[in-house]
Amino acid sequence: MTPPAVSVVMTAFNRQRYIAQSIESVLGQTFVDLELIVVDDCSSDGTLEVASRYQSDPRVRIVRNDRNLGDYPNRNYGATLARGEFLKYHDSDDVMYPDCLAVMTAGLRGAPSAAVALTAPHTWAGGPCPMVLTPRLAYERAFFGQGLFHLGPACALFRRRAFLDLGKFPEAGVHSDALFWIRACQTVDVVLVRADLFWYRAHGQQESARPGIEDAALDIEAAQWRALFDDACPLPPALREQARRNHAYGIFSRAVLDGRGGRVRFGLRRLNRSGLSIREWAAYLRPPVRSAGAGTPPAPLRVGDVRI
Q1: What are phi and psi of 306, to 5 degrees?
Q2: 96 forms bridges with which residues in the sheet?
Q3: Is 0.90 surpassed by the pTM of this model?
Q4: Is 190 helix (H, G, I), strand (E, B) or coil?
Q5: Spatial distance between the Cα atoms of 78 and 172, rounded to a whole number of angstroms
Q6: pLDDT by residue (tens digit) across 66-104?
Q7: What is the CATH number for 114?
């Protein structure tokens, strides 16, 4: 069979309540050259039964794991089942808006140098989309602007081969996506496309609502600090030094807010786990230099006559 343009991978664990709406939002896309691979991670409720109702659509494939893999190992396994030129993750409790795939594929096809297209919950600062970010611009947006490494897998459309070449997601728990962006944006271009292309459902059973999520955020802060000392960091020396000051100030400010909110012990834990030595605190704890438009390319990308 001819491979589809886009492989949508939907990993699922105990999502009986939400998965039907999620699947229907994929099958209702205006972009129709797709396959949907639902990878059930040994659900104990009716998730698999609900998903199986959609197998009459030839674009749908249902896979049930022999054992529970966990969130990111299951995402990585799902990527190995995909056949499309592009790979899109869609969580089994979220809803894609009808033009999501059309917008993201147009953006990525129009940016041959980019390995991934990214959308966001809110409008990107700095200018109109689509815009192509080199590694340096991605890091400028992350450390001098409104951030970039906080995005989840559902915000991305990958060139499938590029995603596999990057080694897929690290399997390091709930913050694996942030660790992936820190590493990937050192070496590949990304294209930012229009924001608000899917609805992120918030509920008490999702991974980000589990105990320990705040400690995972501390791990991300430490990983970002290490990235600013990595030889592969794409920032030139002067910007790298200022990025360190910005990041140190951000960590310290959040620790102060922790203390003011009555969470003194957590604030101290934030400082201890930051990765900064006493000497580094003395050297880098300075007022930040930030701009909402940081990491914006000189001109927006033109993608033929396609409106993005």
Answers
A1: -80, 130
A2: 198
A3: yes
A4: strand
A5: 17
A6: 999 999 999 999 999 999 999 999 999 999 999 999 999
A7: 3.90.550.10
